């Protein structure tokens, strides 16, 4: 009981100084909330709002494109090709002319060889005549062998020192026939010594000769005697 009485007496004796770490007296300043001091600040400059940076698209560099070239402008002017109808006549005209000249030359060479072999025996008829000869002077349906025999019997003994040739400008050669043969017409000029007459004989004769495609004689005839002169 004594303790209880002492406790009540203590409580009724009034407040005592607090043992907390606070000041013993409170002032108005203590009861006012203290705002922390803020030092002088530099005036705030108003800056314009910064615009959002513009997105810049960067394209990779490429070589400049060359302007399109008009193919028709660079293409050389086309040369008009000769039409077959225009070129063909010229070619066809040149070809027959060349063939005619070649044929005439071949005929000249064949006759020159023939007249050279007639100068003296023996005569190789096979080199000048076709295997079958329709006519040779007065012989008909003959052969080179028969012609060689005839010349050996009649020509060489009687026509000595024989010389014959084509009169200049007289040769005419036809176009080829269906079988390829060609006919030549010319004037033969001949001169020889005739032992039986003891005179020289000079003749001009119109001759017709037909050649095979390989220029062998298959027909030879003296059609007309133009001149026949005997010279002592």
TrEMBL record:
The keyword Signal belongs to this UniProt entry's keyword annotation: yes
Keywords: Signal
Bias (Polar residues): 20-34
Organism superkingdom: Bacteria
Keyword Signal: yes
Stretch list, region Disordered: 18-51, 76-102
Signal peptide: 1-17
Name of this chain's protein: Uncharacterized protein
Taxonomic source organism: Hymenobacter coccineus
């Amino acid at each position: 009981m004594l303790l209880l009485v002492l406790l009540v007496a203590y409580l009724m004796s009034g407040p005592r100084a607090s043992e907390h770490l606070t000041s013993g007296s409170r002032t108005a300043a203590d009861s006012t909330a203290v705002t922390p001091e803020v030092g002088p600040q530099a005036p705030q400059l108003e800056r314009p709002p910064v615009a959002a940076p513009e997105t810049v698209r960067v394209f990779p560099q490429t070589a400049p494109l060359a302007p399109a070239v008009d193919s028709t402008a660079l293409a050389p002017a086309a040369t008009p090709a000769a039409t077959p109808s225009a070129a063909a006549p010229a070619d066809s005209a040149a070809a027959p002319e060349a063939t005619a000249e070649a044929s005439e030359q071949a005929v000249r060479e064949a006759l020159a060889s023939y007249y050279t072999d007639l100068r003296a025996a023996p005569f190789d008829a096979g080199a000048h005549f076709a295997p079958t000869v329709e006519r040779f002077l007065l012989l008909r349906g003959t052969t080179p062998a028969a012609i060689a025999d005839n010349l050996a019997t009649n020509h060489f003994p009687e026509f000595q020192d024989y010389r014959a040739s084509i009169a200049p400008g007289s040769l005419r050669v036809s176009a080829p026939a269906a079988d390829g043969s060609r006919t030549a017409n010319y004037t033969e000029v001949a001169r020889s010594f005739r032992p039986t007459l003891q005179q020289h004989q000079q003749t001009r004769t119109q001759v017709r000769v037909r050649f095979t495609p390989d220029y062998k004689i298959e027909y030879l005839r003296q059609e007309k005697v133009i001149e026949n002169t005997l010279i002592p």
